[in-house]
Amino acid sequence: MKVFKSALLLHSELANQRKMGRSIGFVPTMGALHEGHLALVERAREGNDTVVCSIFVNPRQFNDAQDLQAYPRSIEDDMEKLMAAQVDILFLPEYADVYGADDVHETIDLNGLDHVLEGRQRPGHFQGVAQVVKRFFEQVQPNRAYFGQKDFQQTVVIRRLLNLHFPDIQLVVCPIIRESNGLAMSSRNERLSTDGRNKAGFIFHTLLRLRERCHFKSLQESLEISRDYLQSKKGVTLEYLEAVDGLTMKTVQDLEDASNIVAVVVVQFEGVRLLDNIILKNAAGN
Ligand code: AMP
Description:
Blueprint: E1 2-4, H1 7-19, E2 24-29, H2 35-47, E3 50-55, H3 65-70, H4 75-84, E4 89-91, H5 95-99, H6 118-121, H7 125-140, E5 144-148, H8 152-165, E6 170-174, H9 194-199, H10 202-213, H11 219-232, E7 236-245, E8 261-269, E9 272-281
Parallel strand pairs: 1-4, 2-3, 2-5, 3-4, 5-6
Antiparallel strand pairs: 7-8, 8-9
């Protein structure tokens, strides 16, 4: 595995690879890697000649300085995992390698996606995500980019970015990888106590029950029951549980309102924000 800190050197290495006709798959991450990240790498490995992974804890997407400071970092462990997963190139930039010495902030028109749900809870977050991914796409110029359904709204933001600026890059959204109790894997899970981590499977189980219930009760009634359940749980603060159009992130009232519907949830548990989601309906009609 070749490791690049400089965007310029990375750029010229990838230009060579492209000249040789090699396809490039790109997996951006913030490190503290777990099986969720490695599943993206595996998909990229299957579909491309060269796999590029980045590890960069992007300050621009943190709206909370404490959260940024507390974000887990484990670079040596991460590098071992990426080598074992046969990543060809690891991009490990510093802030200035990504944004340039002049640190320009370019606002990207996210069509309001950055102001709803996760965007409303974390002002500036999706602008930060879109800005860093735009820089990475310019630097890496991949054929395919791999993102997890775990951060569902992020995949919608990336699709918007691709439509605006990179129509030739293919977005591959990979399924959520879960711990054995159903908790969606996340670098932030490391901040839970052992007991909390064991109990946190309730989030996914609530989503599973919601998916079942909304086929025999109305969607709104089903959501209310699930919200009440989450709010009644000790130590849980519910930030939101909504059913949204999976293409626009607009909330839907009814299962007939859109062809792709996803239930998205965020709870705080032991002071950790935990995100999850489940597809209630997809374009195939199931
Ligand atoms: P992060 O390092 O948290 O920025 O995540 C990097 C990528 O890994 C994003 O595309 C995430 O959606 C994806 N990812 C994180 N956790 C999971 C998971 N449990 N299953 C699948 N993909 C994930």
